[in-house]
């Protein structure tokens, strides 16, 4: 229980969950309510860390896709101005007026 108290404020998921499970196993039938609480705590921490991992992965995937989009847009830009004499839209002979 002392180890659980030490990591309880900022629990690393796997360690905290495992400590809760071990304490629940040690308590067993002597304190069924305490055992249930420890197992519930273990599950909630595990679920929270899994959810955070999924959200982090999805965020990274979206950021990577957005960066690729920006990269494609930047590659399509031309740093040199086009010569107006070579632009067919500016050629008076192509005018339909």
Brief summary of the model shown:
The protein has 97 residues and is an all-alpha fold.
Q: What is the overall silhouette?
A: rod-shaped
Helix content: 55-70%
Largest sheet descriptor: none
Query: Ends: how far apart?
Result: 88 Å
Strand content: under 5%
Count of helical stretches: 3
Radius of gyration: 31 Å
Instruction: Supply the helix-strand structural class.
Output: mainly alpha
Order of helices and strands: HHH
Strand segment count: 0
Residue runs with pLDDT of under 50 for 5 or more positions:
none
| Mean pLDDT across every amino acid position | 79
Descriptive keywords:
single chain; mainly alpha; 97 residues; 3 helices
Structural notes for this entry:
It comes from Erpornis zantholeuca. This is ESPL1 protein. Residues 72-97 are annotated as: Disordered. The chain is mainly alpha-helical and 97 residues long. It has a domain at 1-58. Helices cover 68% and strands 0% of the residues. The protein contains 3 helices and no strands. Helix 2 (13-27) runs antiparallel to helix 3 (32-76). It starts with a helix and ends in a 21-residue tail after the last helix. The mean pLDDT is 79.
């Amino acid at each position: 229980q002392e180890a659980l108290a030490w990591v309880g404020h900022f629990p690393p998921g796997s360690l905290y969950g495992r400590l809760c499970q071990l304490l629940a196993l040690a308590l067993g039938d002597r304190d069924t309510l305490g055992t249930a609480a420890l197992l519930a705590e273990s599950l909630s921490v595990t679920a929270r860390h899994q959810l955070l991992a999924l959200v982090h992965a999805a965020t990274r995937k979206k950021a990577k896709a957005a960066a690729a989009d920006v990269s494609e847009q930047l590659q399509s830009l031309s740093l040199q101005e086009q010569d107006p004499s070579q632009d067919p839209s500016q050629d008076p002979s192509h005018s339909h007026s």
